[in-house]
Amino acid sequence: MNFVLHGGRGKTLFVTGTSVRIVQEHQQERHDKALLLRHVTAVEVKKPGAFDGFIQFTIAGGVPHDHSASLTGGAFDAARDENSVTFTDQDSYDLALKIKLHVESWTPPAGGSTADEIRKLKGLADDGVITAEQFAAGTRRLLEG
To answer: Rounded to whole angstroms, how far apart are CA atoms 52 and 49?
Structure first.
């Protein structure tokens, strides 16, 4: 299942079956950040009201976010965070809730980790079962999610 949420500050959130991408286009610069779902440890969604709403991702090894004690609900912090996208409308909020559910219910595919799958491909390449090009394409597909 794929989702696209167009947020504030030139950010767009793309969610696929295995990853989250946050792309920010500002003036003539483009920043593109990808997070694999297996690295996401928490998703926070804040409904828009007096302040912007947001969806924010916490990743393994990152600083956990707790905006419950914040006067603004963390909207100002979220606007500056590279792992979040802000929004102002109900439709975006509804989509953010669907994304949160998707990310939180994600389970890794059967067959092992990405590293295990790459090792299997490497073995097939070493044995001459697949070509170097097929190995490279398979590795790229696994890493991009």
So the answer is: 6
